[in-house]
Structures are given as C-alpha cells and as structure tokens.
Specification:
The complex is a heterodimer.
Chain A (H helix, E strand, L loop, with lengths): L1 H25 L3 H26 L2 H29 L11 H25 L8 H17 L3 H23 L4 H29 L14
Chain B lengths: L2 H32 L9 H11 L10 H20 L15 H21 L3 H32 L4 H10 L6 H17 L18 H4 L5 H26 L10 H28 L8 H22 L2
Helix pairs in contact in B: 1-3, 1-9, 1-10, 2-9, 3-4, 3-9, 4-5, 5-6, 5-7, 5-11, 7-9, 7-11
Classes of the chains: A mainly alpha, B mainly alpha.
Chain lengths: 220, 315
C-alpha cells in the first residue's frame, strides 16, 4: 500500500512545492512570504520523510529531521525576529507586476521541465520525474531575487533556492552525503545570521532596507 | 438509451433545481455563524422566492422583450448545465449531446443574456455591472477551460460522465495536477459566482457591485427566476468541483443502490463545500476591481501549471 502510494505522494509534494514557489513569487507582503517559506520547509520535510520510508535509506531520515528543525522552525523564526526588529513586518512590495512576473515564471517552468527531462530519464529513483519541478523551483527563486527590491524577500529567495536544490538532490540521487548536507545546513544558518547583520547595516546607512539604494555609488 | 437512464437524468435535473436554494441558504447560514450573527435559517431563500413569485413584476417603459425573456433563458441555460454535470449517476443521456466545453458554453450564454438584460434599460448601474461581468467572464473562462482540459487529458475524454467514471471507478491514483487545477477552479468559481473577494453577494449598496448592479431593474417573478438561477449557478459550480476533484460516491450506470446512496454522499459533500465557501468568504476581504484581473490571471496560470505538471509527471 505504502510502496504503491508513496511515489504518488512524493509527486504531490513536488506539485505543492511548485505552487508555493509561485505563491512566494507573487506575494507582496513580507510576513506572508516568510510564512510561505515555512510551509515550503514543512512540505520538503514531508517529501524527504516519504522518500526515506520508501527507500529505507537511514541518512534520509536524518536529512528530513534536519529539514524540519532548520527550514520549518529555526530559519522562519530567525526571519520573523529579523523583520520585527527591523520594523518591516507590514512592509509591502509596491513595484511588483504580478501578471508579467507569473508569465515569465511559466516560461521558466517550461524551460526547466524540458531541461530536466533527459536527466530524469537517466535517474532510477522513485521520484525522478519531479526533478523538473525542483529545477523550476530553483529558477523561480532566482526570479524572485531579481524582481524584489526589498532585502528581506531577496534573502528568502536565496533560502528557498536552497530548498529546491535540496529537493532536486533527494529526487535525483536520494540526497547528498551526510557531511555535505550538514555543511550546507550550517552554511545556510550562518548565511541567515550574516545577512541579518548586513540588513541592519543597510538600514543604518539608508534608513530603509531597499536594496536599490545600493546601486548608487555616491551619497547625495 | 434506456428508461433507467432517462429516469436518472430527470431525477438529477429536478434535484438540482429544488436543492439549489437550499445550498445558498446553507452557505448564508454558515457565514452568519462564522460572523457571530443570528442566521436567517436555511430555508430563507425559498421564502424569498415564494414572496417574489407572489409580487407583481414591474417593468420599465422602455424595456424590450429581451428584458422579459432573459430571466427564463438564463434559468434554462443553468438548468441544462445542471443536467450535464453528473451528481448521482454517470449514466446521463444528455451527456452524449454536450461535453465539458459545451457546459462552459452554456454558462457563457447565461452570462451573455444577463449582461444584455443589464444594459437593456439603459441605466448607469446596469451598464456598469454588465461591463464588469463581461470583464470577469472573459478572464475566468480560459482558466475554467484549462481546468477542464487537465481533467480531460487525464481521462482522455471531454465528456464529464467519462471523467467522473475514470476518476472515481478505476484504481485510485493521486493526481498532483488535479491539486493545482483544484486551486485554480476554486478561484474561478469564487469569481463566477460573485462571491468575496471579487464581488459581495449580500449587498445592493456598493459602487463596486457586479452581479447585483445588473439585476437592479428586475422585480417580482423575473427577479425570482434570476435569484433562483444564481443559486443554481452556485450549485452547478459546486457539483462541477465535486465531479472533478471528489467524484467518489457517484454511481455507475445501472447501479440503483449506488444511486440511492449517492444522494446522502452528495448532500454531505455539498454541506462540507458550503462550509469551506463560507470560511473563505469570512477570512478574506473584497478586492479592488482592478485587482480582479490579477486574481484571475493567477487562476489561469495555475491551470496551465496543472497541465504542465501532468505532462511532466504523467499523473
């Protein structure tokens, strides 16, 4: 029963991840973007745990636990604290053309699906077909980092790109070696902390966390 | 075509026409409960209909025959639409004549006539409502078609009966593409049934109204027909959603016990759907009219995404 429905459930998780990536791309409010990121962590945890159950790889259970603790609890908590202290909790991204962004997003999805098709044919894993979705999620996170002008959503775009990368790894080859995974997890945590400090510095200098200020070379 | 099939078809139409106001009443009841108001009772829409049928119909001097005919045409379109969507039994003779695309066409025909009737008298409100309704319809229709196409690709047929029998009576498979399509369909049906966040069904007093603005000139039995048709539209959309995404419990042809058991199953599913609709309407705020294209573009893109996911995952 589980062996039969497990791969289908992993595919369902993949589709939900794609949905969440699009929701993040089009969400204007910072608080909602963080909540969506937490939801992405939860779905990632579910899919990794399902994969672990399906394949019996012990290290996948470890990665699933790591995902839950780090990406669904710790990082969203850090981000929540960050926006509270930066006082940008109710910030709204005003210059965001949602229909155009989504059209570009659809093009990226088609591109990613076509790019991943030959690779996923070679992979012999239970969820090899969802590799395309993982790649699409990565490109959509890239797009999110490009379209946003505020710093916090850009940071979240970066974090969600790592989520997709992680999903790609589990879908294509049942996850990376534990050492690599732990290294990436630590990197992510450190990145979040450093970016937090960085954001405070930006705000100190420009009185806002809008990264467009960084494009000017001189203060006037 | 057998007599049992014709009987099933007739039962379905009569059930839809009779139960549609009950669904509207149930949604209003749930909304009142969620908003801490005293509910008017689930039978209130029937009382309103009875009152309106008793009243005299007042017509403007410059009303054309189209204005008088429109309520009946709209009601007819929606009754026919209700006949195509399988709710109790998949053996429906009318399904051979009209598939999912024809269903969208029927709904579009009803919208066309209500917009014409809205413009017929020439008041500012009617024209305004008609234009907005056409804007919403023009954006919602492609999304609805894409949702139906996703289900059609899965079951290799555009006939709703075949779709339901494939989804409900073959081996159970989880379709990720249908999950995406389900979100898109929910957004489309909120927009098409004039619910929050696109339109507010419970007010005549807002400048932003869409559906109510078109029918301001109607009274008496004409208004009753239109109100009934609006309930029927909500019923048809709910049944369409159930047929595509929760088709379990719909009987196959010749299964009389199954058909009888399908009635409580349908009632349960509709009641749950009504609670969900009331919940959505309570937690969300009405959107600016210029945000509606964005909302419906999202629905369309989700439906496209559903088709792409189906192409990628094969499920």
């Amino acid at each position: 029963m589980f062996q039969h429905y497990g791969p289908q459930l992993v595919n369902l998780c993949a589709a939900v991840l794609l949905l969440l990536a699009f929701a993040m791309l089009t969400q204007r409010r910072i608080l909602s973007v963080i909540n969506l990121y937490a939801a992405q962590g939860l779905v990632l945890f579910a899919s990794t745990a399902l994969m672990a159950g399906l394949t019996g790889h012990l290290h996948l259970y470890g990665s699933a636990l790591l995902t839950l603790v780090l990406k669904a609890i710790a990082l969203p908590w850090i981000l929540h604290r960050l926006i509270r202290r930066l006082n940008v909790k109710w910030d709204v991204e005003t210059l965001l053309n949602v229909p155009t962004t989504m059209l570009v997003g659809i093009v990226l999805v088609i591109l990613a699906f076509n790019l991943a098709a030959p690779i996923s044919r070679l992979a012999g894993t239970v969820a090899s077909a969802s590799l395309g979705i993982a790649l699409a999620g990565m490109l959509l996170s890239f797009l999110m980092m490009i379209t946003r002008s505020k710093a916090v959503p850009q940071v979240i775009g970066f974090l969600s790109m790592e989520n997709s990368l992680f999903f790609a790894a589990t879908a294509a080859v049942y996850g990376m070696p534990m050492v690599v995974e732990l290294g990436i997890a630590l990197d992510l945590l450190v990145a979040a902390v450093i970016l937090g400090v960085f954001l405070f510095e930006i705000r100190e200098r420009f009185d806002s966390v809008d990264t467009r200020h960084l494009e000017k070379l001189k203060e006037h | 075509m057998t007599t049992s099939a014709i009987a099933a078809q007739l039962t379905e139409i009569v059930l839809a026409v009779l139960l549609a106001p009950l669904l509207t009443g149930w949604v209003n009841q749930c909304r009142a409960w969620l908003q801490n108001r005293t509910a008017p009772g689930v039978l209130q829409p029937y009382r309103v209909l009875a009152k309106l049928f008793m009243k005299e119909a007042v017509l403007a001097h410059n009303a054309s025959p189209l204005f008088r005919a429109a309520p009946y045409i709209i009601f007819g379109c929606l009754a026919l639409a209700a006949a195509i969507v399988p709710t109790l039994n998949t053996d429906l003779p009318l399904n051979a004549a009209a598939d999912a695309i024809a269903l969208v066409g029927l709904l579009a025909l009803a919208r066309f006539f209500i917009a014409l009737a809205g413009m017929d008298i020439g008041t500012a409100f009617g024209t305004l409502g008609a234009r907005r309704e056409m804007l919403i319809g023009f954006l919602a229709e492609p999304a609805l078609l894409m949702v139906l196409f996703t289900a059609s690709i899965i079951s290799q047929s555009t006939s709703l009966s075949t779709i339901v029998s494939v989804l409900a009576h073959r081996e159970f498979v989880i379709y990720p593409s249908l999950a995406l399509a389900g979100v898109a369909f929910t957004m489309v049906s909120l927009a098409e049934n004039a619910r929050i966040p696109i339109d507010n069904p419970s007010t005549h007093l807002e400048l932003t109204m869409i559906h109510e603005a078109m029918i301001l000139e109607y009274s008496g039995r004409h208004l009753a027909m239109i109100e009934w048709a609006a309930s029927l539209k909500l019923f048809v959309y709910s049944c369409m959603g159930l047929a595509l995404f929760f088709p379990f419990g719909v009987a196959q042809s010749g299964d009389w016990l199954g058909t009888v058991l399908a009635v409580p199953a349908l009632a349960l599913k509709l009641a749950a759907g009504g609670v969900a609709l009331a919940l959505i309407e309570t937690v969300s705020a009405k959107m600016r009219i210029f945000r509606a294209p964005e909302f419906l573009a999202t629905a369309f893109l989700l439906a496209v995404l559903a088709m792409l996911t189906h192409a990628l995952l094969g499920a």
